[in-house]
Design brief:
This protein is of the alpha+beta class. Helix content is 35%, strand content 35%. α1 packs across α3.
Length: 185
């Protein structure tokens, strides 16, 4: 099983189907908060839906299509993140993330994303990492901006959120840029 220690407080790991109850509770407790920016929330109605998602994450991992991980803060599942897709021919990956409302403001996702970037460049041999965020989702956009990503463009009406389209901002980071960012910390 894939487990990656970010620091003393944060661990990333592949979920097991036995984690489905915990994942569903986290999603359900933050349902209204998450629904503002995530298109899948209404489709997560039961623990079985969370089990299906975990199975999908495992299949994605086994087929090297993605690396979707639970984010644990002080031993509690607080969100999900990972490489939602890989483009191995171009040595590129796309990072996505979300966390429960109760865990906001602790720097968890920023620290975990930084570690996932390290892992992608150092262990997976990626050359480029991308993050997309809704134009108006300021909290999500601050993460790539803090970590030295460059705004590369905008996808107009790039995602359907229940009853409307939102524009997406595309952020990119190259391996050599990450080395410079890390050197300046």
């Amino acid at each position: 099983m894939f487990v990656y220690a970010v620091d003393e407080e944060i661990t990333l790991r592949l979920l097991d189907v036995k984690d489905a109850h915990e994942l569903f509770r986290l999603t359900d407790r933050s349902r209204e908060y998450l629904r503002e920016w995530l298109p899948w929330v209404d489709e997560t109605r039961t623990v079985l839906d969370s089990k299906d998602f975990i199975r999908y994450a495992w299949q994605s991992y086994e087929e090297r299509l993605g690396l979707i991980l639970g984010v644990y803060y002080q031993g509690k599942l607080c969100g999900m993140m990972g490489y939602n897709q890989f483009d191995w021919a171009n040595r590129a990956g796309v990072i996505g993330y979300w966390q429960g409302k109760d865990f906001q403001g602790l720097g968890i996702i920023t620290r975990a994303t930084s570690a996932l970037i390290d892992y992608g460049f150092q262990n997976l041999g990626l050359h480029r990492i991308e993050i997309r965020a809704a134009m108006e989702n300021i909290k999500s956009r601050k993460i790539p901006e803090r970590l030295g990503f460059t705004i590369e463009g905008q996808i107009r009406q790039g995602e359907w959120l229940y009853d409307h389209f939102v524009d997406l901002v595309v952020y990119g980071l190259l391996a050599n840029e990450w080395e410079m960012v890390r050197g300046n910390r």
